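Aim 2 progress update. The chain analyzed this quarter is reproduced below.
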Amino acid sequence: MTLLAHAGAPPAELVRMLAPTGVLRAGINLSNFLLVSGRNSDGEPAGVSPDMARALAERLGVGLEYVTYESPGKLADAAERDEWDVALLGAEPQRAEVISFTPAYSEIEATYLLPAGSPVGTIAEVDQPGRRIAVTARTAYGLWLDRNIQHAELVSTKTFDEAIEVFLNQNLDALAGLRPRLVNDAKEIAGSRLLPGRYTAVQQALGTPKRSDAAIGYLARFVQSAIVSGHVAGLIAKHGVEGLTVAPPAT
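Predicted structure tokens:
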């Protein structure tokens, strides 16, 4: 397949802007198993996000270095410390204060897992007074809940495994998460069930520390071409990822 047929050859000035050291330093969130599915024989991260970063580096004509983080929050925190040039993570308004984002290249549904015997039947019924939701702090879906939950109480944890423990041990009303992960957890928690629908879809995008419009504009065209050329769909198929969908082309 032809990637970036519409992006055009990047001018040297833009290449220096995106990869000032001559190597593209790509920030990768290791905690998202849909986008980073493992490691290759060299120990480097493997998956849709690392492959997107590699395609960008090849287009720019520079080398590639993966800069890995154990959570999206830590990746976002590093935006102002000059640790990475381009990051691949969920685009959220809180992060946009220090990171410029492209339109999304892929989406992941977020929903709730309910305990056995729960009377809740819809997404909207979760956000009611007296109900408590376990959620992993500083994830894209967690940031969305921070902004939008009005009545229920959010019980935040540092990791998703901790969120499951809190959900079970404290008898919470719902566990927030990405649908593909919750599908697996539902099989392990007797009587639990997933709510149909979604409360949000995490928009996976490319981001760069606040720079010029030229840099983010080129990255947006890169994403657009990766979508319309079928490159993103090909990466999802290559890595056998279920629950990750190609984002619609930006209008």
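The chain has a mean pLDDT of 93. DSSP finds nine helices and 13 strands in the chain. These observations will guide the mutagenesis experiments scheduled for the next reporting period.
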